[in-house]
Amino acid sequence: MRYLTIALTKGRLAKTTLELFRKAGITSAGADSSDTRKLIFTNEEMGVRFFLAKGPDVPTYVAYGAADIGIVGRDTILEEGRKIYEVLDLGYGKCRMCICGPESAREALSSGDQFRVATKYPNIAKDYFLNRKHQTVEIIKMNGSIELAPIVGLSEVICDIVETGSTLRENGLVVLEEVCPISARVVVNQVSMKMLNARITDLISKLKEALDQNED
Ligand code: PRP
Questions:
Q1: Alpha helices by DSSP H, 127-215
Q2: 97 lines ligand 1 (CB under 6 A)
Q3: Where are the alpha helices (DSSP H) in 88-196?
Q4: Rounded to the nearest whole angstrom, what is the distance from the C-alpha of residue 160 to the centroid of ligand 1?
Q5: 143: CB partners within 8 A, 6+ apart
Q6: 21-35, 52-66, 132-146: which range is least confident on average?
Q7: Which of 76-80, 123-127, 171-175, 212-216 is predicted with the least confidence, judged by mean pLDDT?
Q8: SS3 for 34?
Q9: Is the sign of the CA dihedral 8, 216, 206, 24 positive or negative?
């Protein structure tokens, strides 16, 4: 029997995801230890192996079939735009994709003049402004601490994730528009979904049961 391979997202989602997998009975010795450099973990009895990858790489592993299943944020799924099935909303990692800036930028947003948008998510920003709002904007791709951009005058607004809102507050910025809600999702390779349907369906129901346990 071949392994069912699962790609998990490193960072913010990792702890909750590993905890969910533990509750679902999908465990492997050492997987939740932070001092290991080991990349891939195997559960021989279940024929399952899993690994932790950078968020944007998870849809790539799944699209190419190097992983059958992935756990990743909806922001990353939308940004990467890979051909994969999104099958389950895990309900954690909740935040919002927003257009933010100083209150004074509200005018620029509705003026019809072109303005700049700094973001880690150029595809999401482009889709929002061009396709949904029919506005021409200049998108500047950045790699982190996006809130700096309007403060130092790189852009009028940013397109970024807001979770607690504290980064915005501490930097004198506000949410100007909401693009979409975000949370962690289960994604599946399109061929694996057909070829390994019973095993994948079984794994997804185990995850659902573990989620229900959380709610009790
Ligand atoms: C994210 C996001 C915001 C912040 C929002 O950044 O880009 O900066 O979290 O969270 P809050 O609303 O709870 O303050 P992250 O910490 O992932 O790192 P980055 O700044 O390097 O992108």
A1: 148-152, 166-170, 190-195, 197-215
A2: no
A3: 106-111, 122-126, 148-152, 166-170, 190-195
A4: 8
A5: 120
A6: 21-35
A7: 212-216
A8: coil
A9: positive
Q: Compute the half-sphere exposure of residue 109: CA atoms within 13 Å on the CB side of its CA.
A: 20
Amino acid of residue 48:
V
User: What is the Å distance from ligand 1's center to 69 Cα?
Assistant: 26
* Cβ atoms 96, 162 nearer than 8 A: yes
The two three-digit tokens of residue 187, written as one number: 């994604």
Domains annotated on the chain, with CATH? 4-93+183-215 (3.40.190.10), 95-181 (3.40.190.10)
- Write out pLDDT tens, residues 93-114: 999 999 999 999 998 888 888 9
Q: What is the overall mean pLDDT for the chain?
A: 94
How far apart (Å, rounded) are the C-alpha atoms in residues 58 and 101? 30
Residue with tokens 């001092």: 35
Residue of 142, 148, 161, 170 with the most ligand 1 atoms within 8 Å of its CB, for mutation: 161
Could you give the 3-state DSSP secondary structure of residue 160? strand
